[in-house]
Design a protein that fits this description.
Blueprint: H1 2-7, E1 14-17, H2 23-29, E2 35-38, E3 41-44, E4 48-50, E5 54-59, E6 68-71, E7 81-85, E8 89-93, E9 96-98, E10 108-112, E11 116-120, E12 123-125, E13 129-133, E14 140-144, E15 147-149, E16 159-163, E17 168-172, E18 175-176, E19 185-187, E20 191-195, E21 198-200, E22 211-213, E23 218-222, E24 225-228, E25 236-240, E26 251-255, E27 258-261, E28 267-272, E29 280-284, E30 287-289, E31 292-293, E32 304-306
Parallel strand pairs: 1-2, 2-5, 3-6, 4-7, 5-8, 6-9, 7-10, 8-11, 9-12, 10-13, 11-14, 12-15, 13-16, 14-17, 15-18, 16-19, 17-20, 18-21, 19-22, 20-23, 21-24, 22-25, 23-26, 24-27, 25-28, 26-29, 27-30, 28-31, 30-32
Length: 316
């Protein structure tokens, strides 16, 4: 019995942090499996690194004070981000990240290096990259019910969400818009699932691709609204394989999406780079609004091209 008790894990603790109390110190003190709760309010220059094998970092929402907001305010962790996730199984909930700038131009709200990271109900604005991952072959990133925007102008290709060469990436129920030269979403993951999001650059947006998979991969894109702004720097909305294909398999399923070209010039709605052997394509039942070349969205496969004036208000 004594041996059994000695091997049982200690009960998880909940550490509560308020603005000015020191998020970095709480991250140093937390043990594997603990929960850190951030009270609503503005946290200025409070950056840090998550080293634990398991951790939940949760913002406590308040009816009056809103959510906790981590402002970089000129600071960064390791020259990378407001928050660096080093390893393990980590969940981040109900937190806003703003203003990350670092000398190499790749400052992120969240820099994810390895392990499994889940981001829930977060807001990520005005960062050189919203979320940026490393190229770790077995890492997995899940983003749900979150919002990204306000890419800074005049900087090195700010992407709202840039996924490196990881195992799996899942994006669902989220809103991305307000890009600047970079992309709304760029994923090099071996498996990418993008479902039921609003990827609409919006008025004043200048994003290039709205959705790019530069090295192909096993990709599923279903039930999204994907909208290019009048100020786009690239005519393609969805791009697959533009930088060449890596090791396979390579397949693209793109179905039941609404793709909108808000620019006056001709768009390419779905651009797929040729290869030998060619990637497996299933591009079906999508709605294309505005002027443009359907690309891989062939009318014979149930894809319909319609005038911009026919676009429902709910998709604008």
């Amino acid at each position: 019995m004594a041996l059994l008790q000695a091997t049982l894990p200690a009960a998880a603790a909940t550490l509560v942090v308020t603005p000015g109390q020191g998020l970095a110190e709480a991250l140093r003190r937390a043990a594997d499996g603990d929960v850190i709760e951030l009270a609503a309010g503005d946290y200025r220059g409070e950056v840090g690194v998550i080293e634990q094998k398991r951790l939940t970092l949760r913002g406590v929402l308040h009816d009056v004070g809103g959510r906790p907001v981590l402002h970089a305010a000129g600071r960064h962790a390791e020259g990378k981000a407001i928050l660096v996730v080093r390893q393990g199984e980590v969940q981040i909930e109900n937190i806003e990240f703003r203003g990350s700038r670092v000398p190499d131009g790749n400052g992120a709200g969240i820099r994810f290096e390895r392990g499994r990271l889940t981001v829930l109900n977060c807001a990520i604005f005005d960062n050189q990259n919203g979320i940026l991952t490393a190229n770790t072959a077995d890492a997995e990133l899940t983003v749900r019910d979150s919002e990204f925007g306000q890419a800074p102008q005049g900087m090195k290709l700010p992407h709202l969400l840039y996924v490196g060469s990881i195992a799996r990436f899942t994006l669902s129920g989220s809103r991305l818009g307000g890009g600047a030269q970079g992309h709304l979403v760029k994923s090099r993951a071996r498996v990418s699932e993008v479902r039921n999001n609003q990827l609409v650059d919006g008025p004043g947006g200048q994003a290039a691709y709205e959705l790019e998979f530069p090295n192909g991969g096993d990709v599923t894109v279903v039930g999204n609204v994907i909208g290019q702004s009048a100020g786009t720097s690239n005519p393609a909305l969805v791009s697959y394989g533009a930088e060449g294909y890596g090791a396979g398999p390579h397949s693209l399923v793109l179905s039941d999406n609404t793709l909108v070209n808000g620019a006056s010039r001709t768009a390419v709605f779905v651009r797929v780079r040729g290869a030998s052997p060619p990637p497996s394509l299933r591009v079906v039942d999508n709605r294309l609004y505005g002027p443009g070349d359907p690309g891989a969205a062939l009318p014979a496969d149930g894809n319909r091209q319609l005038p911009l004036s026919a676009l429902p208000a709910s998709s604008r």
